Structures are given as structure tokens and as C-alpha cells.
Amino acid sequence: MNAMLLYRERLALVENRFVEMVVWQLNVPAKGSNHRFKYRLALVVDGTCVLRYDNEAGKGDHRHADGRETPYRFVGPQRLLEDFWRDVDAWR
């Protein structure tokens, strides 16, 4: 499976918090997804990931928050970033 990196950024929010966002475009959908994007977006606080959106192979699109994993309805890369930042802002 070939992948083209579309977006990669790591931003320090404050000294002990950062976000890391990576989005690739694939030739074919990843196992468990019905779209051609692979992504990992995370908010890390004091070395612990407290919020993550991803679509690891076989699990499909989902979100980790408050110690729970819930399904995520992927619409597109732009909406993914908007949803992630909304949750980051709510967490802060």
C-alpha cells in the first residue's frame, strides 16, 4: 500500500502539552475504512496521550478520549482537523 504524506505537524501548546497530527492519502482504503486516508492526531499532556483520533488497520475510524474508544464518522481531512481542534479546545 503506497501512501503520500499530506500533512504532518507537531505544535507545542504550552511547555507540557503538544499536538501531533499526521494524515496520509492511500492508493486504496486502509483495512476497516471506506476512504483513502490514514491518520493519527493526538493531544499529549505531561507525556500522556489524552485525546487521539486514528484509523489503525482493522479498527476503522475512531477516537480515544476520557479513557474510552468511540467510533468516529470520517467525512474528510478538513473536517477531521476541525473536529480534532474542537476537542482539543474543549479539553483545555
Question: How is this fold's topology laid out?
Answer:
Layout: E1 3-14, E2 17-26, E3 37-45, E4 48-54, E5 62-65, E6 68-71, H1 77-91
Antiparallel strand pairs: 1-2, 2-3, 3-4, 4-5, 5-6
Q: Which descriptors would you attach to this protein?
A:
92 residues; alpha+beta; six-stranded antiparallel beta sheet; 1 helix
Task: Tell me what you see in this structure.
With 92 residues, this protein is of the alpha+beta class. It has one domain (3-91). The protein has one helix and six strands; from the N terminus they run ββββββα. The model has no long low-confidence stretch (mean pLDDT 93).
How many strands?
6
Q: Fraction of residues in helices? A: 10-25%
**pLDDT averaged over residues:** 93
Task: Give the overall shape, derived from the CA principal axes.
Answer: globular
Order of helices and strands: EEEEEEH
Strand content bin:
over 45%
The number of helices is 1
Q: In total, how many domains does the architecture comprise? A: 1
Strand order within the widest beta sheet: 1-2-3-4-5-6
Q: Flag low-confidence runs.
A: none
What can be said about the biggest beta sheet?
6 strands, antiparallel
Question: What structural class results from the helix and strand content?
Answer: alpha+beta
How big is the Rg? 13 Å
Distance between the terminal alpha carbons, to the nearest Å? 37 Å
